[in-house]
Amino acid sequence: MIGALHGILAEKAPPRLLVDVGGVGYDVEVPMSTFFSLPALGERVRLLTHHVVREDAQLLYGFLTEAERSLFRNVLKVSGVGPRIALALLSGITIDAFTQVVREKDAAVLTRIPGIGRKIAERLLVEMHDRLDALSSGDAGPTGTGVEAEATRALLALDYKPAEAARLIKAASTGTQSTEDLIRGALQIAGRE
C-alpha cells in the first residue's frame, strides 16, 4: 500500500493533484482543506495517503496532516459512506467543528455539506460518537507512553472503540512488556470477556 508521497506538485485542479515522484506521476484526490494549504506548482510536497484498491481502479487520497487522514479513515467505516462523501465532509467542515457537531448531535450542519443527506448525517452522528476520543482537537490518536499508545492504535485499527481499547490496554499493561506482548495480552483479555 502507498502510505505517503513526497515529490513535486505538477498539477492542481480541485480536488485532483498530480504529484511527480521520481518521474512517476501519481494522481491524488484531496479534500479542500488540504488543497488550500498546498504549495505552488513546481514546489515539493509531502502527502499522507489512503490507497483504495477496487476491481476497476486504484485510487489515492491525499492529506497534509495525520488528523485529516485519520478522520477520513474513520468516516469510511460508517455504513454507507464512501471516499467521495468522506472527501466532501473534510472539504466542508474542520475536524474540530465536526467533533463539536457530533457531540451536539446536530445533523442540520452536516446536511449543508454537498453530498450528505439526512440519513448519512444521522449515521455519522451515531457511529462517529464513539470515535471522538481519537479525533478530538485534531488529535491523530492516543497519547501516553510509546508502547501503550502504539498498542492502543493497533486496537483502534482492529475496530475496537477508543474507550474499550484504552480499558483493555490498561488491564493488560505491566509497564515492562513490548508493544506486541501488550497487544497480545489485551486481545486475550478481550477474548475471555
Overview of this structure, please?
- The chain is an alpha+beta fold.
- It folds into three domains: 4-63, OB fold (Dihydrolipoamide Acetyltransferase, E2P); 66-137, DNA polymerase, domain 1 (Orthogonal Bundle), CATH 1.10.150; 142-192, Helicase, Ruva Protein, domain 3, CATH 1.10.8.
- 48% of the residues lie in helices and 20% in strands.
- It has ten helices and five strands.
- The protein has helices at residues 32-35, 66-76, 83-92, 95-104, 107-111, 118-128, 132-135, 146-157, 162-172, 179-192; strands at 4-13, 16-21, 24-29, 44-53, 58-63.
- Strands 1-2-3-5-4 form a five-stranded mixed barrel.
- The longest helix has 14 residues, at 179-192.
- The radius of gyration is 18 Å and the shape is globular.
- The protein starts with a strand and ends with a helix.
Short description:
By secondary structure, the chain is α+β, with helices and mostly antiparallel strands.
N-end to C-end Cα span: 34 Å
Helix residue percentage: 40-55%
CATH topology of the largest domain: DNA polymerase, domain 1
Structural class: alpha+beta
SSE arrangement:
Blueprint: E1 4-13, E2 16-21, E3 24-29, H1 32-35, E4 44-53, E5 58-63, H2 66-76, H3 83-92, H4 95-104, H5 107-111, H6 118-128, H7 132-135, H8 146-157, H9 162-172, H10 179-192
Parallel strand pairs: 3-5
Antiparallel strand pairs: 1-2, 1-4, 2-3, 4-5
